[in-house]
Design brief:
mainly alpha, Arp2/3 complex 21 kDa subunit ARPC3, about 170 residues
Length: about 170
């Protein structure tokens, strides 16, 4: 399957999972898993910056349309996409990334992916939750939501990576 078809399928599957399943999970208002960020995380290294931002906007606005959140997810997704090249540059080796590899567990390992995903997820969730409350008055509650939701989202994303990685090694 070529890269465009794979990413298009991933786009729609993640939106469906987010809307149909994960938007219905809210534990005491502190845990709201958002795994649609995985689409931004797994886009190829070679993607142009303008296309990364447009795809992230389309991803976020798709979630906004179904959840009636007035652009909050779109803005948080664009913020995560904006940070992505800087985070990738920070974690890159001196020679850069190999052409044809993707930023996932299968190509760069668990530790690298965990650090990369953690930074992007925490940035996305921080932006999203601070935009949602639009205030610093209940900052402790907002910080708890960021921590718990980021942790839960990261767990789901890492598990999904292991499931996909396991399937890729079995099919080779």
């Amino acid at each position: 399957m070529n890269t465009i078809a794979k990413n298009l399928l991933r786009f729609f599957v993640l939106i469906f999972i987010q809307i149909a399943i994960l938007n219905n999970i809210q534990i005491s208002g502190f845990v709201n898993p958002y795994i649609y960020v995985l689409f931004i995380l797994l886009l190829p290294f070679e993607i142009p910056g303008w296309l990364l931002l447009i795809l992230s906007f389309l991803l976020g606005i798709s979630i906004d349309i179904f959840t009636n959140t007035l652009g909050m997810h779109a803005s948080a997704s664009v913020f995560a996409a904006f940070l992505r090249p800087y985070v990738l540059n920070y974690f890159s080796t001196r020679d850069g990334y190999e052409v044809g590899t993707s930023p996932g567990i299968s190509d760069y390992g668990f530790t690298w992916f965990l650090k990369y995903a953690l930074i992007i997820i925490v940035a996305h969730h921080s932006f999203l939750f601070f935009i949602e409350v639009f205030s610093f008055s209940n900052i402790s509650e907002t910080l708890l939501r960021i921590i718990f939701s980021s942790f839960f989202s990261l767990i789901i994303i890492v598990i999904s990576q292991f499931l996909v990685f396991k399937n890729r090694t079995n099919s080779l």
